[in-house]
Description:
Order of helices and strands: HHHHHHHHH
Strand content: under 5%
Helix content: over 70%
Number of strands: 0
Structural class: mainly alpha
Distance between the termini: 53 Å
Largest sheet: none
Amino acid sequence: MVEFAVGLIGSIGLWGAAVLIAIEVIVVPIPSELVLLLTGFNVSEGRFSMEAAILVTTLASVAGALFLYSVASVIGEDRVLLLTRRFGKFVGLKEKDILKTLRWFSRHGKALVFFGRLVPIIRSLVSIPAGLTKMKLYAFVAFTALGSGIWNTIWISAGFILGENWYVAEEFSHLIDIVAYSAIGAFVLFLIGRVVVERLSRSKER
């Protein structure tokens, strides 16, 4: 991934970083920190300006987020509830759980979209409930741009300051990713555990 990102940015410059950032918002495994650190390094080498780097990568983040938002909006809440009724029992999800989550997101969506852009993995996934609940588009774009702009500025600045030693910050970013993945893994284990407990309870009742 490092070689690919270096090659793409080296070949088409800032637009290469923009393409990678847009894809990263849709496809979680692409690390935005790596792309942004490389972008900052290129800024330190004078290949493009700090302002242009932050602006273009933030616009790319918004574009990728809008894609996921649009897909989720087309799928809609009703289809998700239908799928939950049919298949939710296999993963421990109930219709009332989905409804409760979506209603909660409707109340706190702006803050979740903003702060979600500052957390690995969540920054990609947060567009989905926003689309499902049909969060107002102007609010979604505004808070996505604000949160993404802060995230991009932090990592581009780190790459700029570190210069050729940008990989030092990349190692730190791996720790952040591990924490995020661990949290999500713990949540998945919780769901699995709940399914097991419910099935054991039902078998005892019989």
